[in-house]
Specification:
It is a single chain. By secondary structure, the chain is mostly helical. The chain has one domain. The chain is built from seven helices and no strands. Helix 2 packs across helix 3. It is globular, with a radius of gyration of 17 Å. The two termini are 17 Å apart.
């Protein structure tokens, strides 16, 4: 538990990576879970992911939870490494299932069938920073790790 929470409470890089991931991923998760920002909500998204995409129910559920709850965990720096690992795994799967066949570049010109992987490479790098560094500055992990250390010292 201690290693999962361990982080440098002065690490600005981790805070910046957390904010970047949360700001970009949470709205997608909110579309899927709550129907916010023009999304289809939980029922509609589950129907799409299990029907059209062909994902098993549990995988579709994990997609929704990782993009919504996982993004909030990253925002607050709560069990950051675990949430970042979920983001990393989810988007690695999305790359291989959907976007790798479209090449590297995003589809800005309409000359390719779909969007490539360049956005996902950046997202994976940010998630990897958090897997290595933990929550960093202003994270719940830093507070929890300090409390765990304080309890062990006092015992």
């Amino acid at each position: 538990m201690k290693k999962l929470l361990a982080t440098n409470p002065y690490n600005w890089t981790a805070l910046i990576a957390r904010l970047a991931i949360a700001i970009v991923i949470f709205p997608h998760g909110a579309q899927k879970l709550f129907g916010w920002f023009g999304g289809f909500g939980f029922k509609g998204t589950m129907g799409f992911l299990t029907g059209m995409v062909g994902l098993p129910y549990i995988v579709a559920l994990l997609v929704i939870l990782i993009e919504s709850i996982g993004a909030l965990m990253i925002l607050f720096g709560f069990f950051t490494r675990m949430a970042a690992l979920g983001i990393f795994g989810l988007f690695l799967g999305i790359i291989f299932k959907v976007h790798l066949a479209n090449g590297f570049f995003m589809n800005w010109t309409g000359k390719q069938a779909g969007e490539g992987i360049e956005y996902f490479v950046l997202l994976l790098a940010l998630a990897l920073i958090l897997i290595v560094a933990g929550g960093g500055r202003a994270s719940a992990d830093a507070v929890l790790a300090q409390n765990v250390n304080t309890k062990k010292i006092n015992q």
